[in-house]
Design a protein that fits this description.
This protein has 161 residues and is an all-alpha fold. The chain has a single domain, classed as Ferritin, core subunit, four-helix bundle (Ferritin, Up-down Bundle), CATH 1.20.1260.10. The protein has five helices and no strands. The radius of gyration is 17 Å and the shape is elongated. The structure holds fe (ii) ion (2 copies).
């Protein structure tokens, strides 16, 4: 890569692959959750995730790049780990507590990725693109906070016994 613009393009393709993988995986996480509030939060985030994917498609078409063709191995690993956690035999509350933790790892990965990409876009003077990336960044942060709230207010306590 020659410059920050190419590095941004590389990051956008990586994020696109991550979002594509999540669009497939999130419905399975929603099915696996026992708690109805977790299901609602994840269902809303599934809708947001499809918007994140579309935002990246629009950004990439504005930059004249093809978002496809790269596999985000980190997201693949995070999703696989979540599937194998779900496959373990766990009590309902323990599964819910653990599932929140797994999804938060995924969201933190996205928060880091979007934070970096948005900053690059801003430094490159691509302010519209930066704004779109920050929108997604905030939605990833929001779901992380919502899941924290559920874990801390009820689920972790319920999993003790
Ligand atoms: Fe996302
Ligand atoms: Fe997300």
């Amino acid at each position: 890569m020659k410059n920050l613009k190419e590095l941004l393009e590389h990051q956008l393709k990586d994020l696109y692959s991550a979002e594509l993988q999540l669009v497939t995986a999130l419905p399975e996480f929603i099915t696996a959750a026992n708690d109805s509030e977790i299901k609602i939060v994840l269902t809303n985030h599934f809708r947001e995730t499809k918007i994140h994917k579309e935002r990246l498609e629009n950004i990439c078409s504005e930059l004249n790049i093809d978002p496809t063709g790269k596999i985000c191995k980190a997201m693949d690993g995070l999703i696989r780990e979540t599937y194998s956690f779900i496959a373990e035999e766990s009590e309902e509350e323990v599964l819910d507590a653990g599932l929140i933790g797994e999804v938060q790892r995924i969201e933190h990965y996205e928060i880091a990725g979007y934070g970096t990409a948005a900053r690059y876009a801003r430094e490159l003077g691509l302010s519209n693109i930066a704004r779109e990336l920050y929108k997604t960044f905030s939605e990833e942060e929001n779901v992380d906070h919502l899941l924290n709230g559920i874990a801390e207010s009820r689920i972790n306590q319920a999993a003790i016994a």
